[in-house]
Amino acid sequence: MRATVMFGAGDVRIETVPDARLIEPTDALVVVTRAAICGSDLWPYKTMEHNETGRRMGHEFIGVVEAVGTDVRTVKAGDVVVAPFLYSDGTCLFCRERLHTSCSHGGRWGWNGVDGGQGVAVRVPQADGTLVVVPVGTDDARMPSLLTLSDVMATGHHAAVASKVGPGKTAAVVGDGAVGLCGVIAARRLGAERIILLGGRPNRIALAREFGATDVVTERGATAVERVHALTGGFGVHSVLECVGLGQSTLTALSIARPGGAVGRVGLPQEESIPQALLTFFNNVTVGGGVAPARAYIEELLPDVLEGRIEPGRVFDRVVRLDGVPDGYRAMNDREAIKVLIEF
Ligand SMILES: [Zn+2]
Questions:
Q1: Cα(77) to centroid(ligand 1), Å
Q2: Residue 337 alpha carbon to ligand 1 centre in Å
Q3: Which of 99, 204, 233, 296 shows the greatest Cβ crowding within 10 Å of its Cβ?
Q4: How far apart are CA 327 and CA 318, in angstroms?
Q5: How far apart are the CA of 99 and the centre of ligand 1, in A?
Q6: Residue (of 96, 26, 69) closest to 296 by Cα position
């Protein structure tokens, strides 16, 4: 079958790989109908050392179950399913605590003999714990939004939860990528009265405003911090959704939380340490967040997508076929596209 393989920085190819097939009795075989390229796929795209074997790519996909192993109970052939960006059994200590990202039997797509999502089909380990059936046909107009539940919408929601967004509060979203834009949706969904987007690109700002951003700060660094303070009577915001992970964005995020506020970090950290130790200490700022347990949130967010209350699929601004995936990586890396949808 055909699938996306990365061989090194800037080197993404569509290759013929062994067909996905059932191996464990807890597996499902899913034929992919839509997948996505993630901002986090761009980190290896920028930095990966050349490797002859290559690395299977993709962790956001939606598809149709073709077959299931003998132990699988909750999905069956023909079901349309969405997968979160990690697989998990749904039953271990951590899954029961809704922290599926720490599952004792979980893992990553594209690693240890598991297929990546940017390919024709995927063997899904721990199918009962991992897959969520979506009650729509594969051509449904809501498909792009349903696909975002696998990662970016769940991650934006995690940032909002970790930063304690609630009714009447002021939130700030650092980053205008797909996760930041979904963070705006999540902040509004949880009742934030005011949502300040920190980001710079006009098309993204326009989308953020449609999603519920009330204010936009296009400056960076110390100037951005000053602007947020000026917008909030000098106090800063209750909730900061850090959706980038760079040192600069993290510094900004921690600098704009008001006393007693909270920062939800969901951007993959590119530095080992967290800045502003003294400021956040004396202001009693909670620093939380981490890798989003997307599986824990899919059922909660699903009705809002199905009933049209949120449309996170609007973050996709380019659609490619599988052969167009290498150019999709380039377009996202060059900031031509916010997020690329792959149709099969
Ligand atoms: Zn588990």
A1: 23
A2: 35
A3: 204
A4: 11
A5: 8
A6: 96
CA angle (126 as vertex; 122, 132 as ends), nearest 5: 75
DSSP 113: T
Structure tokens at 124: 């899904």
Locate 279 and state its tokens. 């400021």
Residues 6+ positions from 210 with CB-CB distance below 8 Å: 314
How much distance in Å is there from the Cα of 130 to the middle of ligand 1?
9
Q: Which of 114, 208, 163, 177 is nearest to 333 (CA)?
A: 177
Specify whether the CB–CB gap between 41 and 329 falls below 8 A.
yes
Query: How far is the centre of ligand 1, averaged over its atoms, from the C-alpha of 332 (Å)?
Result: 33
102 close to 94: Cβ distance less than 8 angstroms = yes
Contact (Cβ atoms closer than 8 angstroms) between residue 117 and residue 63: no
**Model confidence over 128-180: pLDDT tens digits?**
999 999 999 999 999 999 999 999 999 999 999 999 999 999 999 999 999 99
Give the H/E segment covering residue 187: helix 178-189
Give 120's DSSP letter: S
Q: Which of 94, 36, 241 is nearest to 159 (CA)?
A: 241
- Which among 300, 294, 298, 263 has a CA at the least distance from the CA of 279? 263
Q: What is the pTM assigned to this prediction?
A: 0.97
Q: Residue for token digits 């075989």? A: 29
Whole-number Å distance, alpha carbon 196 to ligand 1 midpoint, is: 36
pLDDT confidence of residue 188: 98
CB 217 within 8 A of CB 224: yes
Indicate whether 200 pLDDT > 90: no
pLDDT digits (tens, 9 = 90+) for 52-111: 999 999 999 999 999 999 999 999 999 999 999 999 999 999 999 999 999 999 999 999
